[in-house]
Amino acid sequence: MLYLVCTPIGNLKDITVRAVETLKSASLILAEDTRHSAILCAEYGVTAPMISYQKFNEKSKCEEIIERLKAGEEIALITDAGTPCISDPGAVLLGRVIEENLPYTLVGSACAFVSAAVLSGFDLRSLAFGGFLPEKNSAREEYLRGFINFEGTIAFYVSPHSFERESEAFYKAFGSRKAALVREISKKFEECVRFTLGEIPEFTQKGEYVLVIEGKKAECALNNLSVREHVLTYMRQGMEKKDAIKKVASDRGVAKNEIYREAIEL
Q: Quick check: 4 and 69 in contact, CB under 8 A?
């Protein structure tokens, strides 16, 4: 299990009880600066082994850590101050953890949309918060238009009982972008469901939800081709037809079935 542990940004007493317990029980602590983190650990009697893990070595050390996680170790990652992955190391390792479908969680954050953004595994070099959507359809559409061209990750608060209705508005505004529905953050049934807008993922209609959406991607040069030629280009590169259709849908920000209709005879 990988624990992304939030640390105080100033006063050492701002750390949570769970964060201290997690650091004490970890088999290994990954620290941005071991000398800096040693002060925090000494304050709370944390004696777990600690190694350096920062932006200059996170890629080279990543695979070794993945193997240790696969072996069942409980590893904690901390930065000098604040939340891992928010302009701090952690994103590379978290991306690999998600690829390998290994368990992970965030410990010590007190802000739901920030926690959900980290748990999504999306690029967090830039992050916007949209809160709850307006109730009226017209106001909702106008509100979402303000986020359409934002290239960073976007987080919204959603109700589990209105998500299916609101998902249409998200799809209409953003097309087939990748998204993550995060619920019950830091609780027993914490869950992060990844899907593509335009689909309705299976989810438990209970608890608090945050919807995290990837930002607008730079225009793909192949978008100037017809849909058929766009799909054929990827197929000529060796992709299976279904994978080519999925890639084209992603490039163009539309639903896969729209591309499929155009490419059905290929």
A: no
Residue 72 near residue 107 (C-beta atoms within 8 A) = no
Determine the Cα–Cα distance for residues 18 and 138; give it in Å rounded to an integer.
Answer: 43
User: Can you tell me whether residue 127 is helix, strand or coil?
Assistant: strand
Q: Provide the whole-model pTM.
A: 0.82
- Residue 205, classed as helix, strand or coil, is coil
The H or E element that residue 58 is part of is helix 58-70
Give the whole-angstrom CA distance, residue 11 versus residue 7.
10
d(CA 205, CA 192) in angstroms, rounded, equals 13
The structure tokens 């059905």 sit at 264
What DSSP element (H or E) covers 36? helix 34-43
Provide the strand spans (E) within the chain.
Answer: 2-5, 28-31, 50-52, 75-78, 104-107, 127-131, 153-158, 178-183, 191-196, 209-213
Following CA atoms 228, 231, 233, 234 in sequence, which dihedral angle do they give, to the nearest 10 degrees? Answer: -170
Residue 69 contacts residue 77 (beta carbons within 8 Å): no
Q: What's the average pLDDT block by block, 10 residues per block, for the chain (266 residues)? A: 97 97 98 96 97 90 96 97 93 95 96 97 95 93 94 94 89 92 94 92 86 84 83 86 84 78 75
Q: Which amino acid is at 203?
A: F
Q: What does the alpha-carbon distance between residue 266 and residue 246 come to, in Å, rounded to a whole number?
A: 14
Contact between 167 and 197 under an 8 Å Cβ cutoff? The reply is yes
Contacts of 208 (CB under 8 A, 6+ apart): 112, 157, 183, 184, 185
End-to-end, the C-alpha distance of the chain in Å comes to 45
For residue 45, the tally of other CB atoms under 10 A from its CB is 9
